[in-house]
Amino acid sequence: AEALLKINDLLARLTDGERVLLQQRSEAAEETIQHSNRIAGGLVVFGIVLVLGGIALAWIIVGAVSERAKAHAEARAERARAEELASAVEVATEELKVQEAKLRQAQKMDALGQLTGGIAHDFNNLLGIVIGNLDMLRLRAGDDRRALERIDDALRAALRGSDLTKKLLGLAQRRQPDRRIVEPNAVLADM
To answer: Per-residue pLDDT tens for 88-107?
Structure first.
């Protein structure tokens, strides 16, 4: 019985020791679980922060990509506008050259018209003197048929010259010319 008592005592001490050890291990496990829960909570918070940071980063990236696409579109539009303006400038430059050429031609024609008008005016004055003298010769020619024919031919030529100078003066003054159909044979026969 003494051995049994010793065994019982030993078993009780062993059981008490194991209970204490189990209690210590349970407390340590509980502490580890609480520590693990705190770490897990921190990791959850860190994970949430990472997810929110990822969402924010994605938002920023989407905004940047959108801005980049918008900037590319604006650059293409500006490039197209610049090409359009360059084309318009080229067309306007060509039109300006054409208008300048027309202006130079008009100035030349104006100068030619002034010159023609001056010459026609002077020539008309000379023809007036010739026609006046031919009229006086006609009166003095009397019955000399040959002299009268020559005077009449010269008078007709001077009158045609006077008509021509009137047309030249009209052209110089920018009047519309008198257009009419003529019979070339009649004109030649009249000469």
So the answer is: 999 999 999 999 999 999 88
Helix, strand, coil percentages in the chain from 3-state DSSP, rounded to 5 = 90, 0, 10
Query: Which residues have C-beta within 8 Å of that of residue 127, sequence separation ≥ 6?
Result: 158, 161, 162, 165
In this prediction the pTM is 0.44
Q: Is 166 exposed, middle or buried (0-12, 13-18, 19+ CB in 10 A)?
A: middle
Work out the angle at residue 175's Cα, subtended by the Cα atoms of residues 169 and 177, and round it to the nearest 5 degrees: 85
Q: For residue 151, how many other CB atoms are within 10 A of its CB?
A: 20
Measured in whole angstroms, how far is the alpha carbon of residue 35 from the centre of its chain?
73
CA–CA–CA angle 178, 180, 184 (5° rounding): 125
- Tell me the C-alpha distance between 103 and 110, whole Å: 10
